[in-house]
Structure formats: structure tokens, C-alpha cells
Amino acid sequence: MNENGLDLVVVIMAGGAGTRFWPLSTEERPKQFINLFGDRSLLQKSFDRVSDLVTPARVLVLTNAAYMSIVKEQLPQIPSENIIGEPIRRDTAAAVGLSAVLCRKRFGNPVIATLTADHLIEPVDLFQQTLLSAARRATDSNALYTFGIQPTYPATGYGYLERGASIGDYEGVEHFQLLRFKEKPDLETASQYVESGKFYWNSGMFVWTADAILKEFELHLPDHAKALSRAAAADQTPEWEDALKVAFESLHRVSIDFGVMEKAQNVCCVASKFSWDDVGGWLALRSYLPKDEAGNCFRGKAIMLDATDNVLFCEDPEETIMLIGVKDLVVVRAGAGLLIVNKDRTEDIKKLVEGMEAGGKAEG
């Protein structure tokens, strides 16, 4: 038990590729490891949010094997055996299942907060209040909990949660039964969701006991449960890497939402009142960067003449970007890369980068 009376373990999911922030974010150093805000990366900020809830020994970071050294560099206080490198990408169900079998083996039946490494959440105290409220209820009820985010606009890039009946207010946090998960909708459907007042954005963060989530894996993804349990038996032995590789090679790709959560019966959500942003691309920075009278947002040195509503980001504080007579552009200078894109086409950055990494040349 820790000082908040909970047998709590925190799992931080940090395996994403983050191609929408090229050229600052690359395949070698994706979004969660870069400094978009201040001097701490998104991963470090994720750890900071829970560092006074649990000791570093009770924080696990699930990442890609290629990123283990970056995690160790950025979070040196976490024991090396708590930084778990997935040998191949098998989507979120594999990562969640692996973290759960490792938590059960190492800690018994703790309540696990499964969080993201690449989101911006403020204020921290409200986030912690919400997490602890969900954790206590998950411990008492064996329910699977997720964090529902109040939508501020009809987003088509997020999944949605349809809430059911209220099950009470616990420590100032509202709890609801969850009726169903909804995939990313089109604009018309998203607008209907928001207008109904019955839907939350799906944050991708969860709270559950190890036993509760593993029971659902055994019911709905039994092959995952068996393969990952076999791998966990080799945890912290010389056979670990080989066992993990064999397990992951046997798994099919499936998300935790589709593979487990949409099928589980006892699912609840907490109504999260903290500010949440998945910082999905360069345009998300408009809310956090300084802005001039012409609507230009910028980090670094910027000189502008007759330029309006642009987003500028310069990694090197000694470099300068100059704009004359342009509007609605995103201009980014980082490393050896330069990005110039119209704000209406930023979603195409991912397509262009993936084509580049595949050795092709995007045209159009």
C-alpha cells in the first residue's frame, strides 16, 4: 500500500510513432520523447503527473524495443526492469495484456492505472483526484474504468464513449456506467454525439485491477492471455527477450477497445474535468504558443511582414524564420528537416512521412 491507501501501479504506454510532428518527431525519436512545451518531453510530463502517487519502482513504461534507451535517458529514476520493450508492434491489446501479466507476477493484484505518454493534461491535482477516485472504485467493484473527456467540439479524430446511468459521486468525481464504445465518427455523427450530451471523448486511459482485466482477456482474447502469461513466466530471467519475441509473434493486431472493452460487461467511466489534449499535430500548438496581433503563433525567432494566421516552430532558438505576405501556413524547422504546409493539409503529413520512410516518393 502507498500513502493514498491503494495498492497502485502506474503503466505508461509510450510506443507510438508520432509521424504528424515531422520533422521534429521522427521514427527514431517520436512525439512522446520531444520537447514541445518547455524543457520536459510529453513522456516526462506523464511521469511527473504520477510521481507523487507512486514510487518509481511501481511505474512501468511499455514502449517499442527501439525506444528503450530513450526512455532510460529521459526517466533515469525508473528501474531498468520496469522499462519493457515490445519486440514488434501488435497494437494496444498486446501492450495492455503484457503490462497486466507483469503486474500480477510482480505485485499480486494491484489496481493498475494505464496512462498515455503523449497527451497534455492540466491541472495535475484534478487529474490525480480523478485517477484516485477511479482506482478506489475499481478496487472495490472489480469494474473496468476509463476516463471520459467532455467534448468541446465534434471531433472526428477521436473515439467516443456513450455513458449510461450515474453510479454516484465519489470524492468529487462523477462515475457512470458505460453503455458502449464508438469508433471515430464522421462529422455529422460527431455533431449528434456532442449535441446529445451523452457522449465523452475516449481518452485511451484506463484503471482496473490486474485480476479484473486479465479475466476479460481470458474471456475475449484467450490467445493473448496464454501467450503473454507464458512470456511473463520468464520475466527478469536471461530467457525474457526470446520469450517475449515468441509471444508477440504469435499475436494478431487488435486494439484494447475492440478486443476487450467493447465486449466486457462491467465497464464504467469517470467524468474527467481536467483539460486533456492528445496534441495530435502541429495545429494543436496554437493553444499553447505565444500569438501576435495578426494571429501568428510561434516558438523561436520569427520576423513577419504582412503574414497572418501562421504557425511557426523553430527547434534551434538561434535560428530565425522570416515570412512575407503569406497566411494559413505551418512552417517548422528542426534538425535537417523543413516543413511548409497549408493548415488545411496538415493531416497529409503522416501520409507523406510514411511514404518517405517506405522509400517511395509521394506525389499529388
Keywords summarizing the entry:
alpha/beta; 364 residues; 2 domains; globular; 4-stranded mixed beta sheet; Spore Coat Polysaccharide Biosynthesis Protein SpsA, Chain A; single chain; 30% helix
Textual characterization of the structure:
The protein has helices spanning 42-50, 68-74, 91-107, 124-141, 187-196, 210-220, 222-232, 240-249, 256-261, 348-357; strands at residues 8-14, 59-64, 83-86, 111-116, 120-122, 144-149, 160-170, 173-182, 199-209, 267-272, 275-277, 297-299, 301-305, 311-314, 320-324, 329-334, 337-342. With 364 residues, it is an alpha/beta fold. It has 2 domains: 8-277, Spore Coat Polysaccharide Biosynthesis Protein SpsA, Chain A (Alpha-Beta Complex), CATH 3.90.550; 282-345, no CATH class. A hairpin with a 2-residue loop joins β16 (329-334) and β17. α3 packs across α7 and α6 (210-220) packs across α7. It starts with 7 loop residues before the first strand and ends in a 7-residue tail after the last helix.
